[in-house]
Write a structure and sequence with these properties.
By secondary structure, the chain is an alpha/beta fold. About 45% of the residues lie in helices and about 20% in strands. It has a single domain, classed as 3-Layer(aba) Sandwich (Rossmann fold), CATH 3.40.50.1820. It has an 8-stranded mixed beta sheet, with helices on both faces. Strand 5, helix 3 and strand 6 form a beta-alpha-beta unit. Helix 2 packs across helix 3, helix 4 crosses helix 5 and helix 4 runs antiparallel to helix 6. It is globular.
């Protein structure tokens, strides 16, 4: 069941299911909390599962023209504080992982552990920032066309046709976003700082879920981040791209469940 909390000049949409240890799941760019429905249904049998629509996504509105990862983390904290949650495990997919890292830096005392699900601690390279600018231009020209071309590319070319129905649903969900909301997130990602130090200095365990065929977060670039951690659990999915929650749901649900259980 969806709930909403008034936050600044908008409202933040979230779900709260189950009892026990608190597990917070954060979606990625162009996604919404709906991507976690199957995860929440399964994991709420063992945990209290919170899912949140990040700023400008799903049913959560905008608060500014740029939504930095720090701003999104502050909105997440507002929800958790409102629900009187002192400790949780937080797992973020893609951009949601960047928000998780910002949260881990800003509010480390609130975490039992955190996970990067097809995500990165690195900031954007100059080349990636140029590509972000191209994305903004494409969004301004035709944001629905941008969405419809962007989402299939998150899957490996050899398996993308296996997920046609899922892709159509993702395109539908993202299609409800205003172009200004999309650009606010893109600009926010451009401003990400390198948070490898958050991983290396973390006093709590870190979960890495990696797709060997992830074109957005290449396998070889994730390995140094794993090496930086002093206490990590690593799940490597051999035939998976950027969307393990869709491509390999049973394995990733089990990974998150096992990680959260031991904290």
């Amino acid at each position: 069941m969806n709930n909403s909390i008034k936050y600044k000049n908008t409202s933040v949409n979230y779900t709260d299911e189950g009892k026990g240890k608190v597990l917070v799941l954060l979606h990625g760019f162009l996604e919404s909390l709906e991507i976690w429905n199957d995860f929440s249904n399964e994991l709420s049998k063992d945990f209290r599962v919170i899912t949140i629509d990040l700023l400008g996504h799903g049913k959560t509105g905008d608060i500014d023209k740029i939504h930095t990862m720090e701003m999104m983390a502050e909105a997440v904290k507002f929800v958790l504080d409102t629900l009187k949650i002192d400790k949780c495990t937080m797992v973020g997919h893609s951009m949601g992982g960047s928000v998780t890292l910002a949260f881990a830096e800003m509010f480390p005392e609130q975490l039992n552990g955190f996970g990067l699900f097809h995500s990165t601690a690195y900031d954007d390279s100059p080349e990636v920032k140029i590509n972000r600018n191209r994305m903004i231009e494409a969004v301004n020209n035709n944001h629905i066309g941008f969405i419809n071309s962007f989402i299939p590319n998150l899957f490996p070319p050899e398996t993308v046709n296996n997920f046609t129905d899922k892709i159509i649903n993702l395109q539908r969900l993202a299609g409800s976003m205003h172009k200004d909301s999309i650009n606010a997130a893109i600009n926010g990602m451009k401003l990400r700082r390198n948070r490898l130090d958050v991983i290396s200095n973390s006093k709590v365990p870190v979960l890495f879920i990696i797709g060997k065929k992830d074109s957005r977060q290449p396998f070889e670039k994730v390995l140094p981040q794993i090496a930086a951690s002093n206490n990590s659990t690593v799940i490597i999915l051999g035939n998976v791209g950027h969307m393990g929650h869709i491509e390999s749901p049973k394995e990733t649900i089990y990974a998150i469940k096992t990680f959260t259980n031991k904290l």
